[in-house]
Fold this sequence. Notes:
With 409 residues, the chain is α+β, with helices and mostly antiparallel strands. Helices cover 35% and strands 14% of the residues. The protein is built from 13 helices and eleven strands. Strands 5-6-7-8-11-10-9 form a seven-stranded antiparallel sheet, with helices on one face. A two-stranded antiparallel sheet has the order 1-2. α3 packs across α4, α5 crosses α7 and α12 (335-355) runs antiparallel to α13. The longest helix has 21 residues, at 335-355.
Amino acid sequence: MKKITTMILTLTMILAIFTTANAETVLSDIKVNDWFYDDVKQMIDLGVVDGYTDGTFKPQGAVKVDEFIKLLIVSMGYTTTATDSTYWADEYIVKAEELKIVDKTFINDYRYNLTREQAARIIVNALSLNENRPSNSYAEHIKKAMYDYHLIADKHKQDMIDCYSWGIMQGNQKGEMKPKETITRAETTTVLLRMMNQERRLSLDFEAKSISGYDGDGNYNTLIAPLSNGKPVNEIIDVAYILQKQIEKSKGAENFGVGTDGAGILGCETIEKREFVLKDWESFDDAALASKYTDFNFDIDFLDYKGKGKPYQLNLWKWHSNVISDERYKEPGNYCEYFMEYYKEPFYEVFKLLFEDEFNTAWEYFDTALKNRDVNYTIKETIINERRFYINYDNSGIYMSISLKGQNK
C-alpha cells in the first residue's frame, strides 16, 4: 500500500474537482471539532485539496460516481489511456472497468451521485486488488454494530461489512451507515486517506477475544470469536490459543495457521516433513506424497461453528506409520506411544479445557482410538460435558468432532 506522501503529485492533478481556490483560503465551514477536520486539513497542508473561492469547502457536498472513480484510479497509481470520447472521465472509467472495480451491475450512470453502499463496492473491489479481503469471522459483530444494517441492499451487505472490517467506513457514533445517502466530499477525502495509508484506518473494538497468525500462503490474518445468541464464543479463541502455544512444547513439528475462516494445527514428525507438506505442490502425486508425511490436522471452524459436528474436527492418519523416521514407532501397534510422545501437549490441554471434570471420559475414548488395530470401523457418539463427542476409527486413522458446549442436538 502506497503512503499518502507518494501520491501528492498525482492527486494534485485530479483533486481539481474539489479545488477552486489557493491553499491560503480560510475555510469558513470547517471547524476544529468536525470529525473530518484532521483529514481535510492534512489534504490541504499537502497542497492536494482546497476550498472554493467563497472560502468554503462544502464538506457535505455530494460526490458523483465519475469523480470518485477518477480520484480512486489515480490515487492507486494506475495509468490510463486517452479515449476518443469527449466525456472527461471516460479513460478513468475504462480503466476501472478493466480492473473490475466498477461495472453496470451496480451503477447504471456514472454521472449520478454516488451512494455510500455503492462506494463500499468500489472500495472493496479496489482494495482487493492488493490486499486480502478481511476475515468474515467479524461479520456477526459488524452486523450487530450497524444500526441500519437492514437498510443495506442485499448485494452490498458484504461490501459494507468488509469496508467496516478494513477500517474504511464504520458509520457515525450511532452506528448508522446510511447506505442509501450520497457520500460527501468530506467522507471521500477521509476514505481516500484510509485506503492509501493503513495507519489511518479505524480499528475494530469488540468485546470478544481474537487471535492472529499466518496462513499457509504467508498471509497474516486475525480471527475474532464469533457470536452465539448475541455473545462472543470466546472458548473458540481459547482453544486456538492453546494450539498456538502448546505446540512449542511438543516434540513434533506442528504448524499453527490462521486463515480467513478458521484456525488449526498440522502435525508432522520432523521439520523437513513439515516444510515439504507446506510447500506448494503442482501434481496429485506430490499431494499424495505430502499426505503421507502428515500425521494429523486439527481444525477450528470460525464461520460454520454451530451444530453437532462443529467447530472442532480432527483427521488423523495411522496408515503411513511405515514412513515414521523414529525406529521405535514404525510398527502400527506402537502408534499411540508415538503420538503421545510427539503431540500430546496441545491435545491434552484442549481436552482439559473442553471437557473439564469429564476430561478422563473423553480422553479414554481418544486413547482407545489411538491404540486400535482393528480394520473394521468403530463409531462412538456420546454427550460429554454437554458437548456432542463423535469419533470413528479403524487401524488406518481417526476422525473426531466436538461441538460447542450445549450445542449437542
